[in-house]
C-alpha cells in the first residue's frame, strides 16, 4: 500500500496518526529531560567533593531522591507511551531513522539502568537509600566490592547518558534548523 493510499485509508476510516505527542508525554519528556541533565551535572559535581564535607551527604541524598523520582516518571512515561499513539518520524534516510531509534532505545535503557544501579550500589553500604527522607530497603550487605561494581556501572552509564543526551539534542536541532522538517514541534508545549 502506498503512503498516499494508506493515508487516504486512515482518513476514510477515521484513523489518523497524531502530528504531536500527547500532552502527558510532552510534560513527562521535559520534566525527565531537565531532571536528567540536572542529575548528571550534580553527579559530576558531587563526586569531586572531599569525603566528610557535610554538604556532600546532603547532595548525595538529594541526588538519590531525585534519581528515583525520575525513575518513577520514566516508568509512567513508558506506560503512557504504550497506550498513546506517537507521531511518525518525518521522511529521512534509513540510517538516520535507525540512529534515531537506537538513540531513543538506549536513552530508555539508561533511564532505567541508572537509578537501578545507583540504588543497588547504595544497598551495599551502611547508609542505604533515603527517598525524600524515607529509608528504603537495602538489597545487600556492607560490601565494598559489590558497591564498587554497581557504582562503577552507574558511572559508565552516566557517561553514556551524557553522549546520548547530546546526540538527542543535536539530532533535534539538526532536524529543526538544517532539515527544517519541524520535528521539534511534535514535542514542544
UniProtKB/TrEMBL annotation:
Return the InterPro entries for the record: Cyt_b561_bac/Ni-Hgenase, Cytochrome_b561_oxidase, Di-haem_cyt_TM
Q: Which residues cross the membrane?
A: 21-46, 66-84, 105-122, 156-173
User: Which UniProt keywords are listed?
Assistant: Cell membrane, Electron transport, Heme, Iron, Membrane, Metal-binding, Transmembrane, Transmembrane helix, Transport
Q: What superkingdom heads the lineage?
A: Bacteria
- Short name of one Pfam family: Ni_hydr_CYTB
Q: What is its main location?
A: membrane
Membrane topology classification: Multi-pass membrane protein
Q: Gene3D superfamilies attached here?
A: Transmembrane di-heme cytochromes, Chain C (1.20.950.20)
Q: Which cofactor does it need?
A: heme b
Name where it's found. Answer: Cell membrane
Q: Where is the Cytochrome b561 bacterial/Ni-hydrogenase domain?
A: 20-189
Q: Which PANTHER family match?
A: CYTOCHROME B561, CYTOCHROME B561 HOMOLOG 2
Indicate the family of this protein: Belongs to the cytochrome b561 family.
What is the name listed in the Swiss-Prot or TrEMBL entry for this protein? Cytochrome b
The source organism is: Paraburkholderia kururiensis
Amino acid at each position: 500500500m502506498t503512503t498516499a493510499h494508506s493515508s487516504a485509508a486512515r482518513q476514510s476510516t477515521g484513523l489518523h496518526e497524531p502530528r504531536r505527542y500527547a500532552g502527558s508525554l510532552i510534560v513527562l519528556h521535559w520534566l525527565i529531560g531537565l531532571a536528567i541533565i540536572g542529575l548528571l551535572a550534580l553527579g559530576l559535581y558531587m563526586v569531586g567533593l572531599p569525603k566528610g564535607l557535610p554538604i556532600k551527604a546532603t547532595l548525595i541524598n538529594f541526588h538519590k531522591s531525585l534519581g528515583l523520582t525520575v525513575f518513577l516518571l520514566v516508568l509512567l512515561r513508558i506506560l503512557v507511551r504504550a497506550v498513546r499513539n506517537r507521531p511518525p518520524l518525518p521522511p529521512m534516510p534509513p540510517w538516520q531513522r535507525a540512529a534515531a531509534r537506537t538513540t531513543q532505545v538506549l536513552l530508555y535503557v539508561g533511564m532505567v539502568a541508572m537509578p537501578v544501579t545507583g540504588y543497588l550500589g547504595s544497598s551495599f553500604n551502611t547508609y542505604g537509600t533515603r527517598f525524600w527522607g524515607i529509608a528504603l530497603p537495602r538489597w545487600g550487605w556492607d560490601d565494598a566490592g559489590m558497591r564498587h561494581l554497581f557504582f562503577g556501572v552507574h558511572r559508565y552509564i552516566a557517561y553514556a547518558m551524557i553522549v546520548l543526551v547530546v546526540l538527542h539534542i543535536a539530532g533535534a536541532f539538526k532536524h529543526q534548523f538544517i532539515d527544517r522538517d519541524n520535528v521539534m514541534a511534535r514535542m514542544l508545549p
